[in-house]
């Protein structure tokens, strides 16, 4: 059975920054017939649940990986190291289980694919990927945003 890495919050784990999850019938249907590897990079990187909202500042996840952008909480606290560590752990889990695809939480500074919040904490979106999504893509794992979220 083919394995797919899925954001743990999409599988019903209350690990989002607000202590909630985003499980839905659409997500369950999207992974039917696959071995699901649930993973939360932010928790794996050492951040608590709940936690302060965080956004990408100065670029997207690719820029964070290149050292030219960072991830900061709404208080200004830099959590870049935790996000990068969590992304590396997500990649290791995906490789260990043979995942070639990932279904991740849209707009997240970790898991967003194609569009993320702009770093102003005003709800504005910009093109880009989260840190984990960027690292997975760089390593040949196809990342899809979750449907209906």
Describe how the helices and strands are arranged.
Elements: E1 3-7, H1 25-30, E2 35-39, H2 41-44, E3 54-57, H3 61-65, E4 70-73, H4 80-97, E5 101-104, E6 115-117, E7 125-127, H5 131-138, E8 142-145
Parallel strand pairs: 1-2, 1-5, 5-8
Antiparallel strand pairs: 3-4, 6-7
Helix pairs in contact: 4-5
- Determine the fraction of residues in helical runs and give it as a percent range: 25-40%
The CA-CA distance between the termini, in Å, is 26 Å
What global shape is seen? globular
pLDDT under 50 segments (min length 5)? none
Tell me the structural class. alpha/beta
The ordered string of helix (H) and strand (E) elements is EHEHEHEHEEEHE
Number of helices: 5
Based on CA atoms alone, the radius of gyration comes out at: 14 Å
Strand ordering within the main sheet: 2-1-5-8
- Extended strand count: 8
Strand content: 15-25%
| Main sheet attributes: strand count, strand direction, barrel closure | 4 strands, parallel
Overall pLDDT: 97
Protein name: DUF523 domain-containing protein
InterPro entries: 2-thiour_desulf (IPR007553)
């Amino acid at each position: 059975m083919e394995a797919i890495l899925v954001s743990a919050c999409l599988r019903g784990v209350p690990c989002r920054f607000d202590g909630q999850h985003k499980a839905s019938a659409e997500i369950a249907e999207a992974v039917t017939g696959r071995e699901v590897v649930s993973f939360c990079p932010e928790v794996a990187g050492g951040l608590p649940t709940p936690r302060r909202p965080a956004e990408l500042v100065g670029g997207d996840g690719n820029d964070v990986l290149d050292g030219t952008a960072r991830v900061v909480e709404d208080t200004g606290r830099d959590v870049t190291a935790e996000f990068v560590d969590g992304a590396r752990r997500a990649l290791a889990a995906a490789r260990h289980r043979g995942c070639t695809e990932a279904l991740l939480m849209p707009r997240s500074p970790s898991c967003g694919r194609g569009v993320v919040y702009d770093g102003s904490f005003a709800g504005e979106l910009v093109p880009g990927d989260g840190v984990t999504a960027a690292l997975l893509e760089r390593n040949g794992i196809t990342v899809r945003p979750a449907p209906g979220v």
